[in-house]
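Many introductory courses stop at the sequence. We go one step further.
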Amino acid sequence: MKSQDTPFEGGPMDGRVLPVLVGPTGHPPKTYRIPVPDPGGGPPTVLVYRRVPRGHSRRLGLIQGWKYRYDPDDRSGGKLRWPWSRPDATPSGKPDDANE
């Protein structure tokens, strides 16, 4: 498997560079989850980082590389988001309706 040194910014991993496995397209995964064990023996805390472009080329605007930015309020819960799935419900449990 091929890996790429990818920098992390924000959160507890700020400033670190880790080798991240890349997929068949040569890109690292869109999200990187790091489980941190609880010292008290409870469930581990999961740090979530999202992939963002590191920079763009001047002439063509191509992406130069990737980095991971800390996402403290991750709401995805590790679920896949399909285009045909329903939108998330509001806190009251009803679908969001602007006509009320």
